[in-house]
Design a protein that fits this description.
heterodimer, A: 2 domains, 11 helices, about 45% helix, B: mainly alpha
């Protein structure tokens, strides 16, 4: 028994070490070319270094390319300023965990707190706590329930994203045709807002009919699965709006696998792979509507200004605005080069 | 508590060699798999087949043109192939008395590891080797800790679930890793020009192969019979001389290997690897296995049932999308259908086999 255990043990451990060594060689990822969101710092008086500002950043779990880009954009932007110190938390989708992470930042008495809540409603009490503790809160994207929980909100406009997508499709179809929609997670309010905007835009084109809609889960594999089913359900349609470019990777695969190309596709969010496709013009993807994760970089800039009691240079008012809604531009082959630096991987 | 010698001294007949004991236990297990309980397992499958037929009918009635097309059948089978392969591995583990909650995370880790820049340098061969190696490696870790570390499978595989998912996120830095333009061999397997005879997708062939091999191993080899034995009564199996620990280890390695194969199929389907893959695969697999008639406690089960279970779920999804049902309706309907499926199975089995204590 002992001899066989010894031999087996040697073989097992030898295999493990060998496999481990082999596998360890294969985990490196060349640094993704970080086309930095605005490689230039803003010029003008605000760019000059001022009082040191400690910014706390609490985001959700980065389980999607867009969320990951939020974290990366924040880190990169903070690194550009000598007077900004960034304290970034791990990120969690659990309300209780994120609340405790924010509490840690409050206890560390940061100068400004930037919060992208996993859920706006659930994080509202925590936002109010921070404000009550004298720390100005910048609410990023998913809005809190009450203005008492934040000093400034900056985020995207899901409704307008759908609106712009619908408008682009309507115009490109010349006012008539059939349209299919591949949405993201349906239980999220942002998906519902996008669909509402999309429907409202299409209502301006009475001869355009929405013939199908499926909801994927913002993941590549669910995008592939739902798209494959959608293509079966609708053998002929003229345009497709996909809410999210990450799930669009899967959707494009499904389209190629079905060998269909008799329609055009519009994406959403603005990923690098989507913009590359649009630029190469080698697939049905012809445009995408932005939901820029660079809002994290802007939040850092605003946070820094807030901490230094400065205003936004170009405005007539002396204070930072209470609400900044970013625009969802439509990126097409014609203008893709200007937007590539803002794309997320 | 001593080995075969102790049993032999007490058992009937001093001159009975241990081989006889082993054969007796295995024969009893054989009964479980293919003998006395044979009819019950078959009947459960019949019930599930009935559910599948009802679903096909529903699809045909609501959307005849789209549902009854060959292309749609191909889509359903292709989509079923990924979770189907995972379910095959899960069936073995559950029949053997264990459970593997980490399959989804292993699939994610395998897709991520296989699509890193470094691995892609080794071309398609490297990608395939890496995915399978990661699957087997994780299965090995699971099996070693469960079988030799004597820690409960539930806990170990939950720990693996968290670690594998975390490692996947770490390696990929949260990004979706796509296969580069000169590494498209695997992806091309998903396109129509790779279809066998122009009609049968390679993924479906792979799925069928895995199921066939799995069925043969489970029902026609000693390994399979030992799995039933160990799942049914591990102590008796051990006393009869079966190496329960080694066998348990092998079961988890098998499950890991299936995850590796599934991850390759996922790479074919999506041309990419991401830590968000494999979401809730373990629940889908376990649900399919249970609907298929395998007992969670182990010792009894059928591979055909698990495959039918996977097909039922995939068909449900397809019918929902074809009919433009809202997500809310889908989830409620799925729950209802699962309950009905289990009830129908029970009814068919009980009516044919008479009163059944199960």
């Amino acid at each position: 028994m002992t001899s066989s255990l010894g031999r087996r043990g040697f073989l097992t451990s030898g295999t493990l070490v060998g496999a481990g060594a082999l596998a360890a060689a294969c985990t490196s990822n060349a640094d993704p070319k970080s086309k930095d969101a605005a490689d230039t710092k803003p010029a003008g008086a605000n760019a000059a270094p001022g009082k040191n500002v400690t910014i706390g950043f609490a985001g959700p779990q980065a389980d999607h390319g867009w969320l990951n880009a939020i974290n990366e954009n924040a880190k990169k932007e903070a690194g550009k300023y000598s007077d900004v110190q960034l304290k970034i938390t791990e990120g969690s989708n659990d309300a209780a965990q994120q609340a405790s992470q924010i509490q840690t930042l409050i206890n560390q008495k940061v100068d400004v707190l930037i919060i992208l809540p996993a859920d706006g409603k659930q994080m509202t009490p925590t936002g109010r706590k921070a404000m009550a503790a004298g720390i100005p809160v910048i609410n990023l994207d998913r809005i809190f329930d009450t203005a008492q929980a934040y000093r400034t909100w900056i985020g995207g406009d899901n409704y307008r994203m759908g609106l712009n997508a619908g408008d682009y499709i309507g115009k490109r179809l010349g006012g008539k045709g059939t349209v299919v929609e591949l949405a993201g997670v349906d239980t999220l309010p942002l998906t519902q807002d996008r669909t509402r905007g999309f429907n409202d835009a299409l209502r301006n084109y009475p001869q355009i009919k929405r013939v199908g809609r499926a909801a994927a889960e913002f993941t590549v594999q669910s995008g592939q699965a739902r798209m494959a089913e959608l293509l079966q359900a609708h053998p002929k349609f003229d345009a497709l709006w996909n809410h999210d470019d990450d799930q669009g990777i899967g959707a494009l695969q499904a389209i190629k696998q079905a060998g269909r190309s008799n329609f055009f596709m519009v994406g959403g969010a603005g990923s690098k792979s989507a913009m590359d496709s649009i630029k190469k013009d080698d697939s049905v993807l012809k445009a995408t509507v932005l939901y820029p994760p660079t809002m994290a970089a802007s939040a850092i800039r605003i946070g820094r200004l807030l901490g230094q009691s400065k205003g936004m240079g170009d405005l007539a008012e002396r204070e930072i605005p209470a609400s900044v809604t970013l625009f969802s531009a439509v990126v097409t082959k014609e203008n893709v080069d200007t937007y590539l630096p803002l794309a997320f991987e | 508590m001593s080995g075969p010698e102790g049993v032999r001294a007490d058992a009937a007949g001093v001159d009975k060699p241990p081989a006889d004991e082993r054969a007796r236990i295995e024969a009893a297990a054989d009964q479980d798999a293919g003998g006395g309980r044979f009819r019950l397992a078959e009947l459960r499958n019949l019930g599930l087949l009935g559910v599948l037929l009802i679903l096909i009918l529903a699809g045909a009635l609501t959307k005849p043109a789209e549902f009854l097309s060959y292309d749609n059948a191909v889509v359903i089978l292709t989509l079923a192939s990924v979770s189907g392969v995972v379910t095959v591995g899960m069936t073995f583990v559950i029949i053997g008395g264990g459970i593997d909650l980490s399959v989804g995370a292993i699939v994610a880790l395998a897709t991520v590891w296989a699509t890193t820049q470094a691995t892609q340098l080794y071309g398609t061969g490297g990608v395939i080797f890496c995915a399978l190696a990661v699957g087997v490696g994780c299965g090995l870790v699971n099996g070693l800790i469960i079988a030799y570390g004597r820690i409960v499978a539930f806990i170990v595989t939950i720990a693996m679930l968290a670690s594998a998912r975390g490692l996947a996120i770490n390696i990929s830095s949260g990004h979706t890793q796509t296969l580069t333009a000169d590494n498209q061999t695997l992806v091309n397997l998903g396109y129509k020009d790779s279809f066998l005879f122009g009609r049968i997708p390679p993924l479906v062939i792979m799925f069928a192969l895995v199921v066939a091999v799995g069925w043969i191993v489970l029902n026609r080899t000693t390994f399979g019979r030992r799995t039933f034995a160990i799942g049914g009564n591990p102590e008796a199996a051990r006393l009869a001389g079966l190496n329960v620990r080694l066998h348990t280890l092998l079961l988890y390695v098998l499950s890991g290997l299936c995850c590796g194969v599934a991850s390759l199929m996922l790479i074919v389907l999506t041309g990419s690897g991401t830590s968000a893959n494999g979401n809730l695969y373990e629940l889908d697999a376990i649900a399919a296995v249970i609907i298929g008639g395998t007992l969670l406690t182990g010792g009894r089960g059928t591979l055909v049932g698990s495959v039918l279970g996977v097909l039922v779920f995939t068909t449900i999804n397809d019918i929902f999308t074809l009919n433009n049902l809202t997500t809310a309706t889908q989830q409620v309907a799925k729950g209802v259908i699962i309950v009905i499926a289990v009830l129908v199975q029970r009814l068919v089995a009980e009516r044919r086999a008479g009163a059944d204590p199960t």
